[in-house]
Every structure is written in structure tokens, then in C-alpha cells.
Design a protein that fits this description.
The structure holds 2 protein chains of 2 kinds. By secondary structure, chain A is mainly alpha-helical. Helix content of chain A is 55%, strand content 5%. Chain A has a 3-stranded antiparallel beta sheet. In chain A, 59% of the residues are buried. Classes of the chains: A mainly alpha, B mainly alpha.
Chain lengths: 372, 375
């Protein structure tokens, strides 16, 4: 039988043109062949989503049409509203997102994933995340605004006040940076669900479920929690040395694929300087010490700062409560998830791997209940 | 299996994604093994509760353990207030799989991340029949029925659906179905659950993802299609002519073919015999269609093993039990939740994030054009 590669590390599970993570070269390439650092200065989140779905950046006319379509799709339907209202406001935001997306996409009969559905699903995430934020503050959710772009509407719905352009820019750039990343666990979950011929909502719900894990999307919150514990630049050396001695993992460091500095982390690090100057100082010192300790412990391993580390600082600067970090990640990645599902439609094949049996020799006879 | 230069294997066919001691599908010999026991030795002798315990704990329960499990299941059949409200918020013509996905999601919400545990697996398993029965009755405009703690898992499901107790034969048939479908190696929904669990996410998240995968027609979503196709073929003047015409139109025969089995699916064998006893009308038509289908498929691809899969005779058994066909796939989920949760527990105990590679087939890097300059 074939080799068992734990975690499917190194196994090629899909061919894709949606994005490419070049771990050796430290490059992230989005569909169409664009490097992430080239996309950030020229494209908003809507343009990036269009690129991932269509394979090319939109013209002004195409972008206007997309923005209109998204603005029109921001409302929650009756099922989603009822489901949202059923949950306590202190519910884990990712659980609320998973449930409300599921209800919003509940239909009478199976539909094949389509681009229109991808647009509608992407458009509705800020509405749900905004409602979660408001409910957590004990406030009523506000209605989405059609005159705002995706990132601005997200901030409007979270804060119910005119969004600050500087913060809109931070959120928009964050959304562009996180929109896709090869065959990560949540995207892979979406593709496995899609491979059975299931609907787009089921794929996206499965992806949210995977993103929730601390080893995946939950890592941004973990990085911020670590920075909170460290508290200040002066305390970084002592805290990290102690944590290392306790064999505690440093949040925000290490990645399965990158062997050099994550290009997204590089951009976010630069943004963090002005976005959250105080937290930046703590984070920069933390990074310096953490990389030194990790390198001393494992000189053979590439120990680079990952995207979660600097994303946690930038999102803090944008005023996003840390409990909502993972839902922001989902709000970005839904463009990539749906692009991957749509791509897989052209050559759908059930993803059904094998397993290796490590249980008892087959054939023993079960004992009757009374004799056990 | 075709692998390109990159080693890409479509569908991960033949790639070992996990080590497991929960179940083994021995495709060459047509055996399904749960924790060392061959399915034929479990199907008609064990209750679903005993088999669920086996999948979770790795051994069959003693009498005292079984009693404790039955009590725990019975004590967790009720929906939370949130789940009740959410269930009522969904329109009554919603696909029951979408209802299950959404309400399982609400039923399992937490304020903070919880690690997968056996008690959580028991609670989730207990809730599936309640969700389905409550929604079914709402669709019919009927009042929901309270669960009965004196009834076993299969009997209580039917009681909550129908508002009356089913005969022992019917309960036994549903129990056997639930045992047969409780686990099946690294199928797509179980694999989805393990991918989700591998990120250290919670059990509910893994189950919700698995329901989404099971919904697909290439996985669990086809048993109702078997009935629909048989009805059409049965109404045709000549079954064989009709079926040959279907193939000319490239229509698929529902209920045939499987990635793993090279011989007759052992579950299909047991379900076929149950159909013979319980659903003679279905059996007469189904066996005739099966014979013709296997013949035609063999003519087309003599090299391929073309065997009847579990869905084909499942349809006849579930029909005989009296379940509406829209509830066939959800009932599959009510069985498989035992296996899904067992796999999640196993994944969590020996975890490594499942993060495969992809092969980039897009253009080489180039510079983007600013918006105003795009043609």
C-alpha cells in the first residue's frame, strides 16, 4: 500500500490556478499570476475577489457591476435572522457565523455552485460579522449600507458609525492579503465537500468549521493573546524565555509551507507601525526575541513569523475586537473558498482517500452482551 | 489513477490520508470491519447503541456500560432553546439536509472552544433523530412528539417521526440499517470531519462539515434517486430497452459502483436480504433492474468491477420502514454521526493538521494593471 504521509504533507491534492504558495521563494501568487505585493497597491477587496473568481482584474465597468451586485446581496433572509436571534450574544463568533451562513444558504433543493451564489455569500459575511459585534456590545445590529464598499460596510456594521478612511484602508488591505492561500485546511475542506456534488453553502460552512481551529484561523487571536500576556516590549525577553522553558508554543510563528518570511506578514508588519504604534513596539521586540530563541532551539528549522502574528496587530489598529479576528479572516477567505469550489466544478471527482488499518486483526467474533 | 509530473493524484485515490482503528473497508474481499468485527457479525445482533460505543471506545460495552450510554442518549435528545427557535425559522419546504446542517450547528454552539469528547459525541448523536423528526412533523403541520426515554435509539426515532410506536420488525430493520451505515473508512464526509478536526476545531464544526459533504449526490445524497429511477424503469414497457436507452443518453444507473469495493458490498448483501423479506414489490423490480444494470455495465467496461452499492438496497429498506425519501440521506447522517465523531476523537488524539499541497497551473508571475488603465 501507498506511503502514509501524516497530514498529507507534500501530497498534491489538487491542481489550481486560484493561487500558489511558493514556500521556498516566499512568494504568494494570486490567480492571473500576480504577486501579492503587486496586488495590494492596485486592488481593493472587491477587485481581488473578482480576480479570484474570473482569473483577471475587472475593468471599471465590471467592478461597478460587482459592487452593485454585492451591495444588493448584503441582507439576511428570514431564516438567517431567526437563527441569529436564537443564539446568545456571547456565543463564539465562529459558531454564529457557521450557523447563520448555513441558514442563509438553506434551500429547497440542491443547486450547483454558481458565481452569483459566490458573490452573494461573500457579500453577506460583513452583515453577519457586524451583527455579531453589535450583539456582543449589547446593541442592536444595524442595516447594511449600499453606498459603502465591502470593507467600509463591514466597519459600519460593526461600529454603527461613519467609518474612518484610515481604518477602512487597513481592513481592506487585510482582506486582500488573506483572500486565498493555496490548499490550506479550510480551502481543502471546501474542496472535499464540493467533490461530492454538494452545494456551495455546504462547502463554505465546512470551510468556516475548519478555519475555526486554533491551528488554522484561530491563530490570529492566539497571537494577540500572547502579545497581551507579554504586555510590553520590556517584558518580551523574560516572558518568551519562561514560556519556552515551559515548552509553550509561540503563537504567530512557523508555517507548513513558507521557508522564508511570509510575504503577507512583511506587508502587515509595515502597516502595523502606524496602525497600532504601541502594540507594534511590543510585537517587534517579541518577534526579535522569539525568532532568536526558536533559532537557538532548532537551528535546522526555518522559523519565520507568520501572517497571524502581524495580522493581529493590524486588526487591533483597525479597531476590530480580538474575539472577532477569526470571523474577519473568514470574511476575507470566503472569496478564495468559493473560487476554489467553482474551479473544481470543471472536473469534479470525489475526494476519497484511503486509510491504513491499525486496529485488531479482523474476524474476531463479538461476545454476547451477557457474557461481556 | 493518473499522476502527473507533480504527483497529483485526482481524488486522492489510493493515497493513505490517515491511520485508523475504527473501521476497515477491505475492498478486495468485500469485507467491512468495525474495530476488528466483521459487519455481518454485528448487523443483526447488536443495537446501534452498542455499535456506537464500539466505535467510540474500541470495545463492546458491558451491560452496565450499555445502560449508562442509553441513559445518556435518552437524556440528551431534547433540542436547546436556540435550536428550537432556529428550526422554526427555516421554511418548511427546506431540504432536510440543510435543516440538519443548520440545526446541528446551533445545537452545538459554545461560548468557548471545547475539545471533542465522548460525552459530546453522545449528545450530538442523540440530537439527530430529534431534529429530523421535529422538522418532518412541522412539514406535515403536526405537533412535535416528546422523546421517550424507555425507547432505544432506533425505536425512539420512529416514534418521534410517526407519533406511535413501530412494530419490532420495523425497529429492528432501522437498527440494522443504522449499524450497517455507522462507519465506512475514509469516505468523503468522514475525511471532511477529520480535516476540520485537524485544525483543532470543535466536534460540532466537524459534524456540520461532514453533513455538508454527505449531502452531495456522489456521496450520501443519492438513495432517494434510486427510488425515483426504479419508478421510471418500472413504468417502462420493457426495462432492458429503457435502460439501454438511458445509457445511450449517458444517464447514470443509480446505486452502482464504488471507489473501494471490488466485489459485492457486504452491506448491500444484508440489505438485499432485508428487502426480500420486507419489501417484496421493491425487491422484485430492484433485483431485475440490478441484473440488467450489471450486465449492461459489464458490457461497457468488462475490466471494471461493477457492483451494486449500499444505496441501492438501502432505498428499499428505508421505504419499507416507512421513511419518506427526502429523509433517506438525513437518516444516513443519523447513522454515520457515530462514525464521524469516533474519527474526530481519533484524529484529536493523534493530531497533525491536514494540509496537502496543490499544483499551480496558472500563468507565470506578471504585473497587474491599475484600474483606470484596464481595457
Amino acid at each position: 500500500m501507498a506511503e502514509f504521509s501524516p497530514g498529507l504533507e507534500g501530497v498534491v491534492a489538487a491542481e489550481t490556478a486560484v493561487s500558489e504558495v511558493d514556500g521556498e521563494g516566499g512568494r504568494l501568487i494570486y490567480r492571473g499570476g500576480y504577486l501579492i505585493e503587486d496586488i495590494v497597491p492596485v486592488a481593493t477587496y472587491e477587485e481581488t475577489a473578482y480576480l479570484l473568481w474570473h482569473g483577471e482584474l475587472p475593468t471599471e465597468k465590471e467592478l461597478a457591476a460587482l459592487r452593485q451586485q454585492m451591495a444588493a446581496a448584503r441582507g439576511l433572509n428570514r431564516s438567517a435572522r431567526g437563527t441569529l436571534g436564537s443564539m446568545e450574544s456571547a456565543t463564539d463568533p465562529m459558531d454564529v457565523l457557521r450557523t447563520v451562513v448555513s441558514a442563509q444558504g438553506a434551500t429547497r433543493s440542491l443547486t450547483k455552485p454558481s458565481l452569483d451564489e459566490a458573490v452573494a455569500l461573500t457579500a453577506v459575511f460583513p452583515t453577519i460579522v457586524g451583527a455579531i459585534a453589535r450583539r456582543r456590545q449589547g446593541q442592536e445590529p444595524v442595516e447594511p449600507r449600499v453606498d459603502l464598499g465591502h470593507a467600509a460596510n463591514l466597519l459600519w456594521m460593526m461600529e454603527a458609525k461613519e467609518p474612518d478612511p484610515a481604518k477602512v484602508h487597513l481592513v481592506d488591505t487585510y482582506l486582500v492579503l488573506l483572500a486565498d492561500h493555496g490548499l490550506n485546511a479550510s480551502t481543502f475542506a471546501a474542496r472535499v465537500v464540493a467533490s461530492t456534488g454538494s452545494d456551495l453553502t455546504s462547502c463554505v460552512v465546512g470551510a468556516i468549521a475548519a478555519l475555526k481551529g486554533p491551528a488554522h484561523g484561530g491563530a490570529t487571536l492566539a497571537a494577540r493573546n500572547m502579545l497581551d500576556k507579554i504586555g510590553s516590549a520590556d517584558n518580551a525577553e523574560r516572558w518568551l524565555t519562561d514560556a519556552h522553558a515551559r515548552k509553550e508554543r509561540f503563537s504567530g510563528f512557523g508555517h507548513r509551507v513558507y521557508r522564508t518570511y511570509d510575504p503577507r506578514a512583511k506587508i502587515l508588519r509595515e502597516m502595523a507601525k502606524t496602525a497600532a504604534p504601541e502594540l507594534y513596539k511590543t510585537a517587534a521586540r517579541t518577534e526579535e526575541v522569539a525568532l532568536r530563541i526558536l533559532h537557538e532551539a532548532h537551528p535546522d528549522r526555518p522559523n519565520a513569523t507568520n501572517v497571524d502574528f502581524w495580522a493581529s496587530v493590524v486588526l487591533t489598529g483597525a479597531g476590530v475586537p480580538k474575539e472577532l479576528f477569526t470571523t474577519l479572516f473568514a470574511t476575507s477567505r470566503v472569496a478564495g473558498w468559493t473560487a476554489h469550489v467553482l474551479e473544481s466544478m470543471s472536473d469534479l471527482r470525489l475526494i476519497r482517500p484511503a486509510s491504513r488499518w491499525i486496529g485488531p486483526q479482523p474476524g474476531k467474533k463479538p461476545a454476547q452482551l451477557a457474557k461481556r | 489513477m493518473t499522476a502527473g509530473n507533480s504527483g497529483y493524484v485526482p481524488g486522492l485515490e489510493g493515497i493513505v490520508a490517515s491511520q485508523t482503528a475504527i473501521s476497515m473497508v477491505d475492498g478486495q474481499n468485500g469485507r467491512l470491519v468495525y474495530q476488528g468485527y466483521v459487519i455481518a457479525d454485528l448487523a443483526e445482533q447488536m443495537s446501534f447503541e452498542e455499535v456506537a460505543f464500539l466505535l467510540w471506545e474500541g470495545r463492546l460495552p458491558t451491560r452496565a456500560e450499555l445502560d449508562a450510554l442509553s441513559l445518556e442518549l435518552a437524556g440528551h435528545r431534547a433540542l436547546t432553546q436556540a435550536a428550537n427557535i432556529a428550526l422554526d425559522a427555516l421554511p418548511s419546504d427546506t431540504d432536510p439536509m440543510d435543516v440538519l446542517r443548520s440545526v446541528v450547528s446551533v445545537q452545538g454552539v459554545e461560548h468557548r472552544l471545547a475539545r471533542p469528547t465522548v460525552p459530546l459525541a453522545i449528545h450530538a448523536t442523540a440530537s439527530f433523530p430529534t431534529i429530523l423528526a421535529m422538522f418532518y412533523r412541522r412539514q406535515l403541520g403536526l405537533e412535535p412528539i416528546q422523546s421517550r426515554s424507555d425507547l432505544g435509539h432506533a425505536a425512539n426515532y420512529l416514534y418521534m417521526m410517526n407519533g406511535k410506536e413501530s412494530s419490532p420488525d420495523i425497529v429492528q430493520a432501522l437498527n440494522t440499517y443504522l449499524v450497517l451505515l455507522a462507519d465506512h473508512g475514509m469516505n468523503a464526509s468522514t475525511f471532511t470531519a477529520r480535516v476540520i478536526a485537524s485544525t483543532e476545531s470543535d466536534l460540532t464544526s466537524a459534524l456540520v462539515g461532514a453533513i455538508g459533504a454527505l449531502k452531495g449526490p456522489a456521496h450520501g445524497g443519492a438513495p432517494s434517486a434510486v427510488i425515483e429511477q426504479l419508478e421510471v424503469i418500472g413504468a417502462a414497457p420493457d426495462a432492458e430497452t429503457h435502460m439501454r436507452d438511458m445509457r445511450k443518453r449517458k444517464d447514470k444507473f443509480m446505486g452502482f459502483g464504488h471507489r473501494v469495493y471490488r466485489v459485492y458490498d457486504p452491506r448491500a448483501k444484508i440489505l438485499k436480504e432485508m428487502c426480500r423479506r420486507m419489501n417484496p414489490k421493491f425487491y422484485a423490480l430492484a433485483t431485475r433492474v440490478e441484473e440488467i444494470a450489471l450486465r449492461i455495465l459489464h458490457e461497457e467496461h468488462p475490466e471494471r468491477p461493477q457492483s451494486t452499492n449500499v444505496e441501492f438496497y438501502s432505498a428499499g429498506v428505508l421505504q419499507a420502514i416507512g421513511l419518506p425519501k427526502e429523509y433517506f440521506t438525513p437518516t444516513f447522517a443519523a447513522a454515520r454521526v457515530a462514525g464521524w465523531s469516533a474519527h474526530v476523537l481519533e484524529q484529536a488524539a493523534h493530531n497533525r493538521i491536514i494540509r496537502p499541497q496543490s499544483e499551480y497551473i496558472g500563468p507565470e508571475p506578471r504585473k497587474p494593471i491599475p484600474l483606470a488603465e484596464r481595457a
